[in-house]
Amino acid sequence: MMAHEHNLPAAALRYRQRGELRTIATWLDDVSKSGLVLDVGCGSGAWTESFAERYRSVIGIEQSALMVNAAQERAARRPNMEIREGDARTKLPEGPFDMIFLGGLCMYLNDADVVALLDTLRGVLSDQGSIILRESTVCDGVYVAKGEYQAVYRSVNSYRRLFEKAAPFSVEIRRNYGYTAMVTAEELVDLRRRWMPFLPKKSATLGSVTWWALRIITPLSFWALPRVFSRLGIVWPRLQNHFFRLRVLRGRTSASTGNHCILPPLTG
Question: Label partner for 34 (CA 20 to 30 A): which of 19, 196, 201, 202?
């Protein structure tokens, strides 16, 4: 959806996923190749297929029939990949799972449902297993998007408080710079549409030009600038994304730190 709405090329999607996989590579390496993995809210199955390349057995569960069909097409190429249609909040496959992945699911749930889901997932997690979440975030508080596209954008600290309510989890957090690259391109497309209305609003050519111009200067556009802005407390792009790894605490405590920044007003 992000690429389609802003006419970005398929290469942008591939770049984002490669960056995301690098971000959590060491977390994925901690999971045994003989492990059982659950992808909750698996969508079209892109992450599920990536996990099937790594692990012995992967199950994806998705509520949307349209997405289930797309994911099952991927699963047809992977004998160790299974896709089930259903709502993870009411029915889960039997575990125990060595890793459970949620790729942008909690942003569509209210706080109570997030806590209840995490508590349920803990019940099908192996003793040394982990829950990995990937969620779009704002820098402070909570922003609720209403209208045609509805979602709840929480800050890192807001998520941390929800995790504390769900279970005694240890929490590790990593900024998702693959997502930042995609949103940077989105923001520039939006600026072009706003300030250059004489150009076509929908244009695959202009979308590709925007993306590849940013790719040419990747060391600056996708690496240096986001990190410099973060250190200076400047929020741009306005939306961020973070990975969270949760592990059940067993007789120990753990602390994690998030990014400190100042949130500008969100509009639209």
Answer: 19
